[in-house]
Amino acid sequence: QVQLVESGGGLVQAGGSLRLSCAASGRTLDSYSMGWFRQAPGKEREFVGRIGWIGDATVYSDSVKGRFTISRDNANNTVYLQMNNLKPEDTAVYYCAAGTVWTELEAHYFIWGQGTQVTVSS
Question: Is a pLDDT exceeding 80 seen at residue 55?
């Protein structure tokens, strides 16, 4: 079973950038489709983006399209979320997740990290 650990969160001013990492242990990631989700205070968790098994396909939510980029390095068992031009509304706990279905539905992701906090100040 693979375990996921996110890192790279923190406090940043609006317009700034952060890169989140999702490191896997226990098994290689190349068998999984990877997703990023986030949960803001008082809100439900929402889909941010996903990347295919070999990184050849990505999908993003409308709210982050053009600002966020997902990539993966299967050799190092890591998935990344590059976040540029951050806005206060991007403030949330960010989670990476692994699944075997190409979908944005979180119910199909069965391995989750613990999350990392991103706070964007105005």
Answer: no
